[in-house]
């Protein structure tokens, strides 16, 4: 009897997939129809919500949310940093759209079948799933939960590890009435669990409990999958989102209550031969194909050349090490000794150390804001800092020798800091932290100028210039007329320099002609040593480089997207 029920459920799952198909590849691989909203039509569309409305905030809302640790008493600086970036992006993208709303043109959702199959590596062992693209800021796809499958649209997020969908028992949250909800009574394979669970985000949280059921993803059926039924979705973040839930593809180490992630169960149930999955994110605004995630391999038609691999260094997020960071072929000096990096499909932009982002923005003429602590430090102690560097003092020790930072670079200890900054309303720790950070940024900039053999006054002028034009918390704009003359930037990963060009890569352009607005694809993020400096390579980078997440060999690979 049990075997009969299982066969029936499998048949129903196949029928569920067939209902979503636009076309099927000749080798039997299933591709699910995708929706895409081209960025030009989205920004100027008649139905695009105005800045500040519920629709607008939630349309870009997932860029402003992030999962915290499963243990509410546990503090993870990396998680908190990602959280901060997501909140920052939400504000920034809201302002971008507000600036672009001047011309409000037509907006619509369009449907189109998946393009003809390409060459799938490892043949029929690959399991492709089409992704939808919303505003080039969110990528998500369709799954089924239960038997018969109940359809849900989810974000495939490499920076979290849990699957959650709204529950039919969610009756007190408005957001649940605008999304599909899971009804356990309608599934013959449902198994009760009941363990309470919460996931905390930068703009709110979801609450619910664990249940167990089968999950259908493309042509794969994952049995006995633990997931969270969300019974409470407060705030505006999920109210008008175009997705129902989130499917995490991170490691079990960050899973709430230690539940096995969907990807882990795919492996344990031998649903994939190769323990890899890959992302292709389409950044072509004129193409309605949003992208593709492939479980068990990679589609060779989506990349050119070989992948360059680097090993995972922290089994939580897909974290690895990178070498130097270059602007126009010149070293910034930020990551000469290495930086931690996270490949994150759930983050829209590229986030990095503020000292590096400030250098990028100086070279591309991006708008910014002045940092008075930084300007004061350079004005009053710039010559002393240069002399220490000239005397071969290690850059990490310069600020501690002056008295702005402790010997470990944690924060300042100088008795004169408060009078130098003229701040009286901040605590001593807040003031000293800000001054230490400002000093360390200035040292980094001065050190990078030493390589260029600039004069002492030239180094001070450069540092002061950057202090006066720090990355803006609401986004940094550039002149669209100058994009063609901006420098390339590059990340050194696995021995290869991965370049990003300004056109269609690290500069985000909205509109055409006199209505055009251009914004930097970089945002600031500061995590101090020993965990930092940290970079987050989001969709801006993953759109340029096809990405393979190799769980079997604990590595991440990048190749030019095709």
Automatic annotation (TrEMBL):
Q: From which domain of life does this come?
A: Eukaryota
Keyword Transferase set for record: no
Signal sequence region: 1-24
Q: Per UniProt, what is one GO molecular function of this protein?
A: aspartic-type endopeptidase activity
Q: What Pfam families does this protein map onto?
A: Asp, SapB_1, SapB_2
Which keywords does this Swiss-Prot/TrEMBL entry list?
Aspartyl protease, Disulfide bond, Glycoprotein, Hydrolase, Protease, Signal, Zymogen
Which cysteine-cysteine pairs are annotated as disulfide bonds in the entry?
Answer: 170-176
The segment(s) forming the Saposin B-type domain are 369-409, 432-473
Active site positions: 157, 344
Any idea where the Peptidase A1 domain is? 139-559
By its UniProt entry, which CDD domains does this protein fall under? phytepsin
Q: Name one GO biological process term.
A: proteolysis
Please state which protein family the record places this protein in: Belongs to the peptidase A1 family.
Protein name in the entry: Peptidase A1 domain-containing protein
Which source organism? Oryza glumipatula
């Amino acid at each position: 009897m049990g075997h009969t029920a299982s066969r029936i459920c499998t048949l129903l799952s196949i029928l569920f997939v067939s209902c979503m198909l636009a076309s099927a590849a000749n080798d039997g691989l299933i591709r699910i129809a995708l929706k895409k909203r081209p960025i030009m039509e989205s920004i100027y569309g008649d139905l695009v919500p105005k800045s500040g409305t519920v629709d607008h905030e939630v349309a870009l809302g997932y860029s402003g949310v992030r999962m915290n640790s499963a243990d509410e008493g546990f503090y993870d600086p990396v998680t908190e940093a990602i959280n901060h970036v997501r909140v920052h992006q939400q504000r920034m993208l809201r302002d971008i759209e507000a600036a672009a709303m001047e011309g409000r043109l037509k907006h619509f959702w369009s449907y189109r079948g998946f393009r003809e199959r390409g060459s799938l590596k490892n043949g029929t062992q690959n399991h492709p799933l089409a992704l939808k693209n919303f505003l080039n800021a969110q990528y998500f796809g369709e799954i089924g939960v239960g038997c018969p499958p109940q359809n849900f649209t989810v974000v495939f997020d490499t920076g979290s590890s849990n699957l959650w969908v709204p529950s039919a028992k969610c009756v007190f949250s408005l957001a649940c009435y605008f999304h599909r909800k899971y009804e356990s009574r309608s599934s013959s394979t449902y198994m009760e669990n009941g363990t309470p669970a919460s996931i905390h985000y930068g703009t709110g949280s979801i609450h619910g409990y664990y249940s167990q059921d089968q999950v259908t993803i493309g042509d794969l059926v994952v049995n006995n999958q633990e997931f969270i039924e969300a019974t409470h979705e407060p705030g505006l973040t999920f109210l008008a989102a175009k997705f129902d839930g989130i499917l995490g593809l991170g490691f079990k180490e960050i899973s709430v209550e230690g539940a096995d992630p969907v990807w882990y169960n795919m492996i344990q149930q031998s649903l994939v031969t190769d323990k890899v999955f890959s992302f292709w994110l389409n950044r072509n605004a004129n193409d309605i194909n949003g992208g593709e995630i492939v479980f068990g391999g990679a589609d060779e038609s989506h990349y050119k050349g070989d992948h360059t691999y680097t090993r995972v260094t922290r089994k939580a997020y897909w974290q690895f090490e990178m070498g130097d960071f270059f602007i126009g072929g010149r070293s910034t000096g930020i990551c000469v000794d290495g930086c931690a990096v996270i490949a994150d499909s759930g983050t829209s932009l590229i986030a990095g150390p503020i000292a590096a982002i400030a250098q990028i923005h100086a070279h591309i003429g991006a708008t910014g804001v002045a940092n008075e602590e930084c300007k004061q430090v350079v004005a009053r102690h710039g010559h002393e800092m240069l002399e220490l560097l000239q005397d071969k003092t290690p850059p990490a020790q310069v600020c501690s020798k002056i008295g702005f930072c402790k010997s470990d670079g944690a924060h300042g200890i100088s008795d004169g800091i408060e009078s130098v900054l003229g701040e009286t309303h901040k605590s001593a720790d807040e003031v000293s932290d800000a001054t230490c950070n400002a000093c360390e940024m200035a040292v980094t900039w001065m050190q990078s100028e030493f390589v260029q053999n600039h004069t002492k006054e030239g180094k001070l002028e450069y540092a002061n210039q950057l202090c006066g034009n720090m990355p803006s918390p609401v986004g940094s704009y550039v002149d669209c007329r100058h994009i063609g003359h901006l420098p390339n930037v590059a990340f050194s990963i696995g021995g290869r320099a991965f370049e990003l060009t300004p056109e269609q890569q690290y500069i985000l352009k909205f509109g055409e002609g006199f209505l055009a607005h251009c914004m930097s694809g970089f945002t600031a993020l500061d995590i101090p040593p020993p965990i930092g400096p940290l970079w987050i390579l989001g969709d801006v980078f993953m759109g340029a480089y096809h990405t393979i997440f190799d769980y079997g060999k604990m590595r991440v690979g990048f190749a030019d997207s095709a």
